[in-house]
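Ticket opened by: R.M.
Priority: normal
Category: complex prediction / small molecule

The reporter submitted a protein together with adenosine-5'-diphosphate and asked that the result be attached to this ticket for the collaborator who will pick it up next week. Submitted input follows.
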Amino acid sequence: MPLEIVRNDITKMKVDAVVNAANESLLGGGGVDGAIHRAAGAGLLAECRILGGCKTGKAKITGGYNLPAKYVIHTVGPIYDDGKHGEKALLESCYRESLALAKEHNCETVAFPLISSGVYGYPKDQALKVAIDVISDFLLENEMTVYIVIFDKAAYKISEKLFSDIAEYIDDNYVDEHTDYSRECMRMNAPMAPMAPRRARRKKTEVDLSEMCDCKAMLAEDDLDAKLRQIDESFSQMLLRKIDEKGMTDAECYKKANIDRKLFSKIRSDIHYKPSKPTALAFAISLELSLLETEDMLRKAGFALSHSNKFDIIIEYFISKGNYNIFEINEALFAFDQSLLGA
Ligand code: ADP
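Result attached by the on-call engineer:
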């Protein structure tokens, strides 16, 4: 997945480069900066000393020393005042400059903390949105896997309005389907229908089986061949057809789906490719399919949307609102502890 939100300690990330939320001196500090310097060791500080600091919104690169990462990209986020002092432009610049440096050094994987969202006070939901917007723009033009690393769940916040809208939507839909049958009967004052005894049901199966045996004998091999030839359009065929119908290029489609090029090529070249459910849904979102079309596409991959799990309801929420921004959907999925869309 080109952009992933993960929960981790950034010093543990095995990537080509980790980004450090540094201060202008580049000589270490608290928060993520302190953690990176502690884990990297004295060599990092020695290299930082010769860099001569770094301006807010800019970035500089060093080695990774004792970190699992090969490089550390130091960027200085803005101190948040009231949002009217160019904070957003400076924060965007931090992400852009860091990504440009990573590209210059041929990094294929880069991990960012949520810059400025700690001591520098940038509201976390807005800091996350800036990160996602700039990184996803960059990924439209570049091949790289970028992680946004969230240290602790409490540090992660999507907008309160979105969170409560989704929570309400989950409540409305999830509860309905999960109402226990007996409780429902009690509530409606209706007697419960007796369940068929197990053994009786098994007996019926035996009868069915013997009937089937007769039928089977009658089913000529040719019939089976004919039936198999009527097999439906596959997932991959439907995907390629929809891309054409929407007038998209392949790259537009897989990038909007947050799917990497290699996986897309695999799906393209194998008409029987069976994607995972998050991958199938990522394409449905990228193609901006309606709920009905999404269900259809999922069925081709052997899945369905149900009200029995939060993941499906959150997807349904976004589709019903006409919001097909995969990164916003992933933010919400992450906030509700669900797996993310994409490969
Ligand atoms: P800033 O000064 O830019 O606000 P901070 O280090 O105070 O930088 O915080 C930036 C973000 O990094 C915060 O969201 C904080 O929770 C997070 N953070 C702190 N330590 C780590 C770590 N070891 N790995 C990843 N993120 C971290």
